[in-house]
Amino acid sequence: MMRNLGNYKFAFVTCSVIALSIYVALYGLRFDNAILRALRLARKSPDNRTGGWDSEKSPFDEDLNSMYMSIAEEIDQSYSLHYDFYRESCPSADKIIAKTIREIYNARPSVAPALIRLLFHDCFVEGCDASVLLDVDESLTTEKGAAPNLSLKGFDVIEAIKSELENICPGIVSCADLLVLAAREAVLVAGGPFYPLETGRRDSVVAFREIADRELPSPQASLSVILASFSSRGFNERETVSLFGAHSIGITHCTFFKDRLYNFSGTGKPDPEINTGFLQELKTKCPFSASASSPSPSPGTGLAPTLPASHSSQSYGMSSENGNDAVIDLSYNNEGGDENFGTRYYRRLLQKKGLMYSDQQLTGREETEIWVRAYASDSMLFRKDFAMAMMKLSNYHVLTGPLGQIRTSCSKVLPRK
């Protein structure tokens, strides 16, 4: 009986593959998209899934899962990231990216936090595949339209570098590799640590608008939600806290934390966790308005819930185009200098001077506060841990080998041949 059941399952799988192949041939279905999604589901641990297999799996589901896992493992073994991937095909790629980022940073320091944030928003949604860079077209949605991504910056920088790379090495360097390398350079010019990166990523042919809307953590997210979100992607408490150190650069608007100043959790009072002196400073820069009596909007921005850092004012409280929504410089005029990249953020948390609710929450539980204290007192430990976490983030769920493509423009999928 069981042998016959196994034969039926095998026959069904075989027929399904044949039928799908015929459909692809006749109708031009994007077969790589379907396989891409299946492999990504298969790679996820059952304990870490964000909406995959049912807890009550049939033997047939197990067979399909095993089949996809074996395909994923075979691809991983045959096509993997490695150092100096473009050594022969585009040897000047790294230098072009680094040189361009440094030149732009010298004129516009806001590019650094913008690119770090762009990387996080790409990698956190179905992996580091440059899907966040895609524009909408008649057959494709776009992650740019997701609420957490509406204020993302840096697309023009990535596109400009891609254009230069295409002139020198057409069709060689992926947008996914370009983004991780540009973000690394952004960390470096902002005073953060250097970290080595393997290359060989390929670009997604689809975008994930709904997942971006649903899964990027909000600035108002609780610590439990934040830790669960990072854990589902393989990051432990230590790695999560270290990644939040990127909040030591960039800016944010009063809109995203004003409820903590005037109406925390609907109490009509300030958040009691805010340092009293700091609260008065913030109230001066972010005066009460009718909107402050309502909960802050939750665009959900995760690792870097901020716009690019400002460099146009000597004060860390600046007026924006909306006079009622000032801008706060998260570096506090580069407090302590570049060597305090990260550590100033943790020191301010210990002083109860975290701006975002999600930031200050890191001191709310022992398993995260221990790392806040460690990084506040040991800059070398933070730099090491941050570098390791950024390497891990940059390698999250990448596409290699036959999966994906190499776009010639980072905002557009290559047309089907």
UniProtKB/TrEMBL annotation:
Q: Give me the residues that bind heme b, please.
A: 247
Instruction: Classify the main location.
Output: secreted
Where on this chain does substrate bind? Answer: 217
Reactions that this protein is recorded to catalyse: 2 a phenolic donor + H2O2 = 2 a phenolic radical donor + 2 H2O
Q: Which Pfam families match?
A: peroxidase (PF00141)
Q: Which residues form the active site?
A: 121
Which residues make up the binding site for Ca(2+) 2? 329
Name the GO cellular-component terms.
extracellular region
Identify the PROSITE patterns for this entry.
PEROXIDASE_2 (PS00436), PEROXIDASE_4 (PS50873)
Polar residues bias locations: 309-318
Give the source's domain of life in one word.
Answer: Eukaryota
Gene Ontology biological-process entries: hydrogen peroxide catabolic process; response to oxidative stress
Q: Which GO terms of the molecular function aspect are on file? A: heme binding; lactoperoxidase activity; metal ion binding
Cellular compartment(s): Secreted
Keywords noted in UniProt: Calcium, Disulfide bond, Glycoprotein, Heme, Hydrogen peroxide, Iron, Membrane, Metal-binding, Oxidoreductase, Peroxidase, Secreted, Signal, Transmembrane, Transmembrane helix
Show the segment(s) annotated as Disordered: 289-318
UniProt site (Transition state stabilizer): 117
* Plant heme peroxidase family profile domain span: 80-414
Q: What is the protein named? A: Peroxidase
